[in-house]
Amino acid sequence: VGLLKDLQGVVPTGPPAEEADLPQEADEEGSGSGGDDRSHEAAEDCRSEEDEEEEEDAGPATTLVHGVPPGLKQALVPRRKKNRTNRVSVCVAKCRSSLRVVECALARFSWEQVSRDTSDVSVAWLEHTDSTASLSPFQVTSKIEGILQVCRKAELAACIQEMQEHCPDDFEFVPRTWILSPSRVDQVQDLEQTMARKKGWTYICKPTAGSQGRGIRLIKAFAEMRSPLRSAFSDRVSPAEFVVQRYLTKPLLVDGFKFDCRCYVIVTSVVPLRAYLFEEGLARFCTSRYEKPTTKNLNNVCMHLTNYAVNKNSAAFSADPAHNAGSKRSLVSVFKLLESRGGPSADALWGEVQSLAEKSLLALRPALVEHISLGNRGGLHPAGPKAFHILGFDVLFDEKYKPVLIELNAGSSMSVLQPTLEPDGSGQKTEVSELDLAVKAELVAQALLVANPLPHGAALRHRIAWLEERGCAGVTGHRLLSVDEPIPLDDSGELIHESAANNAPIREDRPDLCPALRPLSFEDYEAFGYVQAHLQAYRIWRHYAFYPPGNMPVRQPGSRRYLGFGRHSQLPSGSVQV
């Protein structure tokens, strides 16, 4: 299979891929066995080679884009040797609309861009349904398995609701929510009763797998729910799910316009839970002045929906080249504007976003652990690749500056294209948004840096040794992960199985190179104790359910819940929760 070739000086290269014909990506809410001392030595090699390849000094990366917002803190890049094998290689063959920003980040670092589809690289950029099966623990990927599924609207709502039962005071940042599905008839009945009592409320209904504002409607009466209910209950094989939320009627406005905040969080580990808030983002404005919802304006989507895909086609959409004006702006500039007008400081607003992100990730963790473990995916497994994932948090502030989580996007759009008017006003054209390019290229750059990938030569050498140790079966695409392999016991990252610990190389995050990343902290919340308890219970009892009499454990995969968490399966009637 050609695995024993001499790797010295071999770095795959190729012409840059084209972006022109790629479809524009939409935000989507639902995207080892025993070892010996060689694995330990490989991990030591990783650390020693890394120490050799990096000089002591570090400086800002070269900026290749214009229009960088003044408040954007740019990445620091260690000086690397000129030997090409000591550069990081990144496969961009699976890039979609992210190609332009990934190319920009790689050019700044002088990293190697690999255009052909191959697993023989330091980093594999993956998106959506792309598989991580062919990657080794010595490589990095841009996708954490399972996040796309648990971030879908209904799944996210279920995770939040379960956490609200345990820690209601910590989870007031989500509007009251109902899930419409055949498995949650009680919530449909509660929604009908609530609508009958609260006739002055307005509600927003969203399909769980929708994107770009498609299928969203504002309603005031239960009778208007007939179409979503038919979709949810008519098809018993694959019923559609909808989420209904109380609509926020008093949002924070800027000059009379409603806006939302696209905030980015980079997750680098599920167990232990590690993530970073990117201290820049995009503020997306409606193109019609806001009015409280009435039966006459419920259908005015450009007044009520902040989705960029909805407002970009409005005649009132303003593609201002400045970062602090127009229908899309730098989030830092908007926070500073609010501060200058007597609102909270920009740092206080970032603190509110940070707290919201920390609690949201805590709510997602139990379902994510179960999803990864049940699917035997490498994202949690000690022999899986190191992964990071960029999440897009859509946040509104109410008139009292309290944040409200609207959606969580696991497939945040990295497109940098926007419509603008032709100079003669004859129509629209599409061009690159300097603001989008500056923000998203820096986001991708710091996500790659914090993941701390191995240089190309070391990544391939250890990948080959890892495959040979397992009989090269990984070359055929078969994952060599055992269902019985352990998951970490707790958020200290301790591995219970000694051989698993020996198999996994130690590649610590490098937030010191990423000044725009604010580390998230989870230990101070009451919910953290529940999340830890779930992990320990799940690790011990994941193959069992409890049944009377005597609460004797019976092997029954697919019929379990742990401390009330997890949505992949429900307990059968009469069973007892762990």
The tally of helices reads 14
Task: Determine the mean pLDDT.
Answer: 77
Distance between the termini: 48 Å
Going by helix content, strand content and strand pairing, the class is alpha+beta
Shape: globular
Radius of gyration from CA coordinates? 24 Å
Strand content: 15-25%
Largest sheet, in brief, is: 7 strands, antiparallel
**What's the helical proportion of residues?**
25-40%
Record field, number of beta strands: 22
Low-confidence stretches: 1-26, 28-57, 473-486, 493-502, 545-578
Question: Which tags fit this structure?
Answer:
578 residues; alpha+beta; Dna Ligase, domain 1; 7-stranded antiparallel beta sheet; 5-stranded parallel beta sheet; globular; disordered N terminus; disordered C terminus
What does this structure look like?
The chain has 578 residues and is of the alpha+beta class. Among the domains are: 37-145 and 445-515, no CATH class; 176-246, Dna Ligase, domain 1 (2-Layer Sandwich), CATH 3.30.1490; 543-578, no CATH class. 29% of the residues lie in helices and 19% in strands. It is built from 14 helices and 22 strands. The strands form six sheets. Strands 11, 12, 13, 14, 16, 17 and 20 form a seven-stranded antiparallel beta sheet that branches. Strands 4-3-5-6-15 form a five-stranded parallel beta sheet, covered by helices on one side. Helix 2 (99-109) crosses helix 11. The longest helix is centred in the middle third of the chain and has 29 residues, at 346-374. Residues 1-26, 28-57, 473-486, 493-502 and 545-578 have low confidence and may be disordered.
